[in-house]
Amino acid sequence: MSVVNAAILGFGTVGEGVYRTIQSHQEELEAALGKPVKVVAVLVKNEHKSREIETDVLVTTEIEEIFNLPDLHVIFEAIVDKEPSFTYLKQAIAKGCHVITANKEMFCYHGQELLDLAQKQRVGVGYEASVAGGIPIIQTLQQLLNINNVTAIQGILNGTSNFILTEMREQKQSFEAALALAQQKGYAEADPGNDIYGCDAFYKLMILSGLVFGEQPDLKSVKINGITGITLEQIELADQWGLRFKHLASIEKKQERLHASVTPVLVSQSHPLYHVEGVDNAVNVTGDLVGDITLQGPGAGMYPTASAMVEDLVHVLQKPAGEKARNKAASKIIKENGEQDASYWLVSNIKQEQLSNAGIDFEQLEESFFAAKASPAQIEQLKEQEDGTTVYYPIVGTFELKNEHKETHLIGAHG
Amino acid sequence: MSVVNAAILGFGTVGEGVYRTIQSHQEELEAALGKPVKVVAVLVKNEHKSREIETDVLVTTEIEEIFNLPDLHVIFEAIVDKEPSFTYLKQAIAKGCHVITANKEMFCYHGQELLDLAQKQRVGVGYEASVAGGIPIIQTLQQLLNINNVTAIQGILNGTSNFILTEMREQKQSFEAALALAQQKGYAEADPGNDIYGCDAFYKLMILSGLVFGEQPDLKSVKINGITGITLEQIELADQWGLRFKHLASIEKKQERLHASVTPVLVSQSHPLYHVEGVDNAVNVTGDLVGDITLQGPGAGMYPTASAMVEDLVHVLQKPAGEKARNKAASKIIKENGEQDASYWLVSNIKQEQLSNAGIDFEQLEESFFAAKASPAQIEQLKEQEDGTTVYYPIVGTFELKNEHKETHLIGAHG
C-alpha cells in the first residue's frame, strides 16, 4: 500500500481526537511509516450533525458502507459499550484490517478473542488507549514482560474518582460537591456510575491481567468497592494519621494464585501512589528483575488518548504480521481474588470492646474511629460478629501504630 | 542462527548482572526469541580472579580472542570510560554484531557515530541501560516520538545525589555525612565526583537530547552545577517554604532553541519530581499530544540495569535489521544552552538593599536568605553587581511570594 487508509468508528471526544491528530501529524506519520495516513470514513450516530470533517471523507451511519470500501487497512474504534463494537471489530479483523480500540469494557470481556482472531488473520490489535489514556502502560508492560516476571500491578486507573478524593481532601468538600465539580469540569459523565462505583477501573485492571498473567480471574467474583461511602470526616481523620484515600485497582500473583480487587485503601506517604492527585492516572509495576517502576500521566482527554491510538497505528504497522500474542501462558495460575493482604486497617462504626475482645491491637482517634493491626482472618472474624455497618479500609505503605514499639505491649492504649 | 551467541565486556556489577539474568531467564528469552541465548565469552581485567562462570565460557583479557570467535551475534558492553569501549564497539559493529551498552559517558560522546555505523551494517544498538537504569525511558521516548513532538524533558538522573539530598533533609545530616552514608551503602563510588558534580547526569541528559532532538547542544557550553554547595541550613530554610532541593537535568526546545542544564533547583509540591526521593531516578516528558508523563524507578543496581540490557537484546533481535535510526532530524535547531527560565529564586549571601535597588520583589526568611521574584535578566544584573559569593537557586513548580497578592505592591514586605 502507498497510503494507509483508516476508518474511525465514533466521533465523540476520542474519535475526533484521532481524526485531528492524523490531520495535524502527517509529517510524523510519514516519517515513521514511510507513507501518509488517510482517514477515508467515519461512522457516526447522526449523519446530519455538523462536524468539521473534510468533504472527501465518507461520513455514514452504516457500518456496511465502511466495510465495502476497497483497500481499508485500519479501523480505529472509539465508541462505548460492548456491542456493537465487538461485532464490528470481529468483522474488521475478518476482512484483514488492523484494529485499534479505546473501548475498555469491550476489551475487558472480548480482548482475548480479538487477539486470537487477529493472530490467525495476521493483523494487529492495538489497545493502549483502553488503559490509562496517554500513559504507555501496555507497551511498557509488553517490553518488560519479554524478560521480567511481573508479579504485581497496582494503579489509580480512574481519573474522575481520584479527582473527587483529591478535591474532598484539599478543599474540604463533601463527596456530592466534589462529584458535581467533576461533572462541571467535564471529567465525569452525566451518569458517573462507572467511575465512582469502580467498574471503569475494574475493566482496565482485567485488561492488564490478561496481558500480564495470560488470563483473568473469574470476572464476577472480583471484589469491586466504589468510593461513594467515603466521607469528608473519614478523609480528615485519615489525614491526621498522614494517610490518604486512594481508589486502588490491584492484581497480584502470590503462590500461583491471582488476587485482584478494586477498592478504596488508605496509603501512607511511602506508597508510590500517595502523591498521585487530581485527574492523573498512575500504574506501579513490580517485576522480578526491574523492581518497582511507576508511570504517571493523563488518564483521559482528547489528545492524550488520541496519542496512544495513533502510536498503536505505528506499532501495528511496524511489527511483523502475525507476531504471536505476547500474553504470557499462565496455566498454573489458580483463579482467585482477594482482599488487600493488609496488616493495618482503618475501622469505623465499631465499639472498642469488639476490637479488644478479638485480641486486636488498635489506637483510637475519635469515638468510633480506630487504626487497627489485624490479620485478614481477624478482620473476617470481626465482620461475622458485627451488624454489617462497620467500615474497614486497608492501609498500605509503611505504617505502624504509635504504641507499637513500647516495651509493654498495650492493647488499645487510648482506650 | 539457532542459538544467540553473546559476549559480555566487563564483569563488574552490570556485566555480572547480565550474565546471571541470561542464565536465570532462559525460558523467557526462548519464549521471546524462539531460540536460546548463550554467553560464550566474557572480557575481564584479571584472568586469575575467581568468578562463578560456567567452565565452557571463554574468560579472557584479550578482546581479539572474543572477536575471533565464530558466530558471535551480540556484544554487551559493561565497562567504564570512553576508551577502549568505543573502539571495541566500532569493531563489533564492523563484524556484524549487535551491540548493547550501559556506558553513558561513551554513548554521550560517540552514540551518534555508533548508531550511524550500525545502520550501515544493518545491526542494532541498544542503550536503554545508559540512562536511568531499569526505567524504560529510551523505548518510551522512541514510541512517543513516533507521533508526539517532545518539547521538554526534566529528570533526576543520578540516584546518588538524590539520595544525599534526601538524607540531608530527612535526617538533618551534613553533606559530608550523607555522602559517607551513600558510599557505605554502595550507592556512591570511592570517587563520587561524577555523581555529585553532575557529570553523570549530564552524560545521560545529552544521550536523551540526541534521541529526542536529533542532536546535542555544544557539550562544553552546557552549564553543569553540582550539589556540593548545598548546605543543611539552606535545605531547612527551603523546607520552611515547602520547597525541596532536587538536582535537575533538563533540556527544552523553545522557539527552535535548545536550553540544557544540570543544576540544583528548588521544586515546590506541585512539581512532578518533588516526591522523588532516595536513590530513585525519574524522568518527566512533555509531548505536544500526550501532555506530561513521568516515569520513576530504580536508576541503578545489578538487576534493574541487567533487565534493561537484556530487554534491549530482545528489541534489537526482533526489529527489522537496518531500521533507520529514530533520532529526529532537527536541522532548524539553533544550539544553545541556558539557565532554568525561572521567575522565582532562592537567593542567599546578599544584602536586601541589592534586591531592593534592582527593583526585585522579595521576602526575607533569615538574615541573608531571600525568596525573590525576578527575571533571568534581573538575576544576571544582580550577578554583575555582587562579589561572586551570592548563591542563586531557581524555584520551579507553582510558587508565589506571600505578599504577592496584596493590593498595595510592597517591595520586600519583611525588610
Describe the structure.
Two copies of one chain form a homodimer. The first copy, chain A, is built from 14 helices and 16 strands. The first copy, chain A, has helices at residues 13-24, 26-33, 63-67, 85-94, 104-121, 137-145, 159-171, 175-184, 193-196, 199-213, 232-240, 302-318, 352-357, 376-385, and strands at 4-9, 37-43, 58-60, 74-77, 98-101, 125-126, 150-156, 223-224, 244-254, 257-267, 280-287, 291-298, 344-348, 361-366, 369-373, 391-396. Chain A has three domains: 4-130, Rossmann fold, CATH 3.40.50.720; 137-298, 2-Layer Sandwich (Dihydrodipicolinate Reductase, domain 2); 343-408. In chain A, 35% of the residues lie in helices and 23% in strands. In chain A, strands 7, 8, 9, 10, 11, 12, 13, 14, 15 and 16 form a ten-stranded mixed β-sheet that branches. The first copy, chain A, has a six-stranded parallel β-sheet with strand order 3-2-1-4-5-6, with helices on both faces. In chain A, a hairpin with a 2-residue loop joins strand 9 and strand 10. At the A-B interface, helix 2, helix 6, strand 12 and helix 12 of A face helix 2, helix 6, strand 12 and helix 12 of B. Strand 12 (291-298) of chain A pairs antiparallel with strand 12 (291-298) of chain B.
CATH class of the largest domain in chain A: Alpha Beta
Beginning-to-end CA distance, first to last residue of chain A: 76 Å
Looking at CATH, the homologous superfamily of the largest domain in chain A is Dihydrodipicolinate Reductase, domain 2
**How many individual β-strands of chain A?**
16
Largest sheet of chain A: 10 strands, mixed
